Every structure is written in structure tokens, then in C-alpha cells.
Task: structure prediction
Amino acid sequence: MVPDKLKYTKEHEWVDVDGDIAIVGITDYAQGELGDIVYVELSNVGEKVTQFESMGTIEAVKAVSDIYAPLSGEVVEVNAVLETAPEVVNRDPYGDGWFIKIKLDDIAEIDNLISPQEYKELIGE
Result:
């Protein structure tokens, strides 16, 4: 499942941009590869994140992986549900399992992301 309205990173994050706010999460493919997610640690509200640099980690039964910021900006909201129910990412990676919201520094950075079609090719769909 690769929603057409989103942009993607090669590291399997998705981003939904609305004006100068970006909602970020990991893809269905990524959560499937990770397996049962048991812990998510994210940047805090007020922190700056930089495109393609780590903004947290995700721990699953199989592995611990970095989560990379698809765009640069200031974290304005963190999904508090994931603190007590990280498994929501497995059930609904594009909905209730989102990670953070970023107030963007430069909307032009979106040109560095990949399209849904390019992402499907990357994962072999």
C-alpha cells in the first residue's frame, strides 16, 4: 500500500505536506519489514530536524532502526499515542500511526523526495 498523495524517502518514511506543516511517518512496507513495533523515540516539540538526518529511533522485535526527517524544520507536534501504544504504527502507518508534525523551513526540499511511483519501484511493487 503506497498512497498516491504522499512523498517518500528511500529510507521508507512518508510525508504529507499541508501548507508549511508536514506530517511524517513510516511506510506500510517499513513497518512490515520491522515486525512488531515495541518502542518509538522521537525528537521533542521545539527541536529542529534536518532533512535526511536522524529524528529518532524505532524498536521492533527484529531490530532497532533510525527514523530520518524527510524535510527540515521545527517539530511542532509529536504523536503522544505512540508513547503507550507503539503498535499503532503496525496497524495504521498512514493514519493514527504518524510520528511527528514539522513546521517547514524550506518547502523546496520536497523536490529531494521521491514520488509514489518511484517508491513502488524501490520496494518492488
Observations:
- The first strand starts at residue 7 and ends at 8.
- The longest helix spans residues 116-123.
- The chain has four helices and nine strands.
- Residues 7-104 form a domain with the OB fold (Dihydrolipoamide Acetyltransferase, E2P) fold (CATH 2.40.50.100).
